[in-house]
Amino acid sequence: MASLALAVALSVLWLGSSVQAQSTLDYVPGEILVKWAPGQVASGVAMARDHVAALTLRNFPQIGWEHLQIDPTMNVQTAIQKMLQQPGVLAAEPNYIVHLFATLPNDTSFGWQWALNNTGQTVDGVAGTAGADISMTTAWDLRTTSPNIVVAVIDSGITLNHTDLKSNLWVNPGEIPGNGIDDDGNGKIDDVNGWDFVNNDNDPSDDNNHGTHVSGIIGAKGNDAYGIAGVTWTVQLMALKSFNSSGSGTTANEISAIQYATAKGAHVINASWGGSGFSQALKDAIDAFPGIFVAAAGNDGTNNDLTPQYPACYTSANIIAVAATDQNDALASFSNFGTTCVDLAAPGVNIYSDISGGSFAYMDGTSMAAPHVSGVAALLKAQESNRTTVEIRSAILSNVDVKASLSGKVATGGRLNARAALAAIAPFAPTALAGTAAGPTQIDLTWTDNSPGETGNEVQRKTGSGDFATLASLAANSTSYSDTTAVEATTYTYRVRAINSGANSDFSSEVSVTTPPAAPSGLTATTASASGITLVWTDNSGGETGYEIQRKTGTGAFASVTTTAANVTSYSDSGLAVETTYTYRVRATGSGGNSAFSAEASATILAAPSGLTAIGLAASDTILAWTDNSGRETGYEIQRKTGTGAFATVTTTAASVTSYSDSGLAAGTVYTYRVRATGSGGNSAFSAEASATTLAVSSGGGGNCFIATAAFGSPLAVEVQVLREFRDRVLLPNAPGRGLVRAYYRHSPPLAHMIERHETLRAATRGALRPVLWWVSLALASPALALALCGGTLVAGPITTVLLLHARRSRAAHRGGRRMP
After folding, report:
1. Are 390 and 456 contained in the same domain?
2. What are 154's strand-pairing partners?
3. With CB atoms 3.0 to 4.6 Å apart as the test, which of 69, 140, 165, 820 could cross-link to 813 if both were Cys?
4. By residue range, what is the domain housing residue 154?
5. Is residue 185 domain-shared with residue 317, that is, in the same domain?
6. Which is catalytic among the residues 276, 367, 598, 699?
7. HSE (side-chain half, CA atoms, 13 Å) at 192
8. How many domains does one find in the chain?
9. Which neighbouring-strand residues pair with 662?
10. Which one of 155, 326, 539, 628 is the catalytic residue?
11. Are strands 273-274 and 89-100 parallel, antiparallel or unpaired?
12. HEC letters along 87-125
């Protein structure tokens, strides 16, 4: 074919020159590219093709172009003119021939990769200048790999089994290797690592060395103790063979390769090739690629602004056009330039990289400069995968090392600086920052992480109008943080930003959170009156606005009783019901919310005892009796005073007790008593007061059973103890009985004194008391039976009344389940 003959001719020219020249015949004979207007019907398209006897070779539906083979006897320019006259044809152009911008290796010995780290060493016989490199070693301090980034190398292919490259080859995730099936449905069977568009097969191996050399610069496996290190140590290199063994290819092949890279999600395309023919079809394909498109400026040593080279001179927004510099930061003698068409320069002289056969070699050319930029673009995309093509391009072009040798030669006036580019591109700022007070000393923060490439997150905090200070440094991809150093009742303002080793994101929007006050503690509830309970608690907060007091009875729900001012530590609850248990809880209130509740405290208002009576039994004894009105007391407190003195506690009794004998008193003295029920939650009100006067003269003692003691000779006699029990259990608990006791104590002492001195009277008295003792014992055992047997006797009157009351009390106590004294 004519195109093959042309390629052979061009390959001879390329082998014989260190700088590739542009052929005078720069398109494929017998082929054109046509762009159709949208919506064309098949019949109209067929009629238009017939004017040039065209056969369709390839379609590019994504950009609306078609690759046609025309009548071999027809001139390409004539065919273009004919097609432009047909309805529905928007554009027509030749299928341009493009060329690889590189020279053959001029030295196969191992050398320094000065482009990455220039110490002034001599490389390939040329001494360099220290620092005339792309600052790669310091850039690697920021990032060394881009494992998820796909760089499409549209070139002469890649040596797929090269030790330095094979682990960094792209693998088609939609294809099963070697099964002979087009698994991903793209019309290409077993396209595992890419495609050969020259021979239309699935083996994109390199038969020229150029593509392998370019690939090594971009992504030779780094830090593996073998060969060289690529700009990015780990990457996915997509092999798209579009140039033959002589280094020639066609626009149609380039479009096919670009569309393959686009469809397979490549992030960067390296294009170390070009030509002088403007192809709208190629530009459309480049415009449709969403990633960075790195193009070599060309090796003619000419001004691209005057003699354009494409694709470098296309105005596509995603193109970075690259010139070449040498080891001393001078523009390479062969490099094309142009302040409009060329963006920056990168090392392109004596570049040591991989070639076929597992070997290494030096090459010169803007073809070697471009992959340095492609590798940095891959690192930038890996550093922050959400960054746009525009942002990555800007990071590269805005952070060059400006060089006088490049002033007026390239748009930026500078050479690539990988470190500066990586340091300049910041991660995306977090959003949706929110904060919640989890307690008086903890605030929980959450946010949305928008930056998969950050190395961490920084949380800053301030109080009031103070300055922000770093609170915490977190790992990458963090989306929450708990601040446990907060102080209660304090307003904090937070902000968060993503950080990486090169630059930090903007801060998120701020969020302010006020911690609630500290909860009160030590709550106690004490009965204060017949209808009131007093609460006391400890104020643990210095910033509360007040306190809320809640109350419930039984198993009911808590309800708010009142709120107080700040710093209050007590409250008196009034208007309460007796014999009711009230449970309380308290919490501090504040502008940032309320504290937790205190522990609960309960108190019961006990019913006060009533009917208190006091009787002087002897010169040193009184006896008290009262009515128990509470079923919840834990006991009774008895207080006593003399004269106008103060009351003092005499004793406490067990629950349900209703009498008490006070002894050891002074003779002839008035004692005043009061009694109150006691409980775990406080005491009842006091009973009404009652007074008793001790007798002036002792009259036999015996627990005040004077006559019985005189008759039986001792207060410890069993008969005396029975009569005393009858007094305490039967007589004293009721008013008639107490009346009998008072009368007895008033009149019996002289009679007892006389009995005590005459044995005859003592014997007679003992005989008279025997039936009384029998009946008293019966009354203690069975009041009802004793009542039935006492009718018509001497004691029937007053004693019957007493027994009736005692029997009634005994029955009531039995029904109520309580034992009465």
Report:
1. no
2. 240
3. 820
4. 110-423
5. yes
6. 367
7. 12
8. 6
9. 622
10. 155
11. antiparallel
12. CCEEEEEEEEEEEECCCCCCCCCCCCCCCCCCCCCEECC
| Tens of pLDDT, residues 489-522 | 999 999 999 987 667 888 999 999 999 999 999 9
Residue 770 shares a structural domain with residue 785 = yes
Q: Are 165 and 220 in contact (CB under 8 A)?
A: yes
In the numeric block, which tokens belong to residue 157? 């292919």
Residue 616 contacts residue 745 (beta carbons within 8 Å): yes
Write down the mean pLDDT value for the chain.
86
- pLDDT (tens digit, 9 = 90+) per residue, 269-288? 999 999 999 999 999 999 99
Is 1 inside a domain boundary? no
Residues in the chain: 821
Q: Is the residue at 676 inside a domain?
A: yes
What is the C-alpha separation between 467 and 464, in angstroms, rounded? 9
In order of 317, 476, 508, the CA distances from 424 in angstroms are 20, 19, 19
Residue of 99, 162, 210, 267 with catalytic role: 210
Report the DSSP pairing between strands 268-271 and 292-296. parallel
Among 202-216, 601-615, 624-638, 714-728, the range with the most confident prediction by mean pLDDT is 202-216
The answer to whether residues 415 and 445 belong to one domain is no
Least confident of 80-89, 94-103, 223-232, 582-591: 94-103
Secondary structure (3-state) at 268: strand
Residue 634, class by beta-carbon neighbours within 10 Å (0-12 exposed, 13-18 middle, 19+ buried)?
middle
| Residue 200 token pair | 């239309």
- Whether residues 664 and 575 fall in one domain: no
Q: Is residue 367 flagged as an active site residue? A: yes
- Which residues, other chains included, contact 344 with Cβ-Cβ below 8 Å and sequence gap of 6+? 320, 322, 323, 373, 396, 397, 400, 406, 410, 411, 412, 414, 415, 416
User: If you search the block for the tokens 């039967």, which residue do you land on?
Assistant: 730
Q: Does the annotation mark 155 as catalytic?
A: yes
Cis amide leading into 311 (omega within 30): yes
- Both 266 and 118 in one domain: the answer is yes
User: Do 332 and 248 fall into the same domain?
Assistant: yes
Could you give the CA distance from residue 122 to residue 136 in angstroms, rounded to a whole number? 18
* Annotated catalytic residue 210: yes
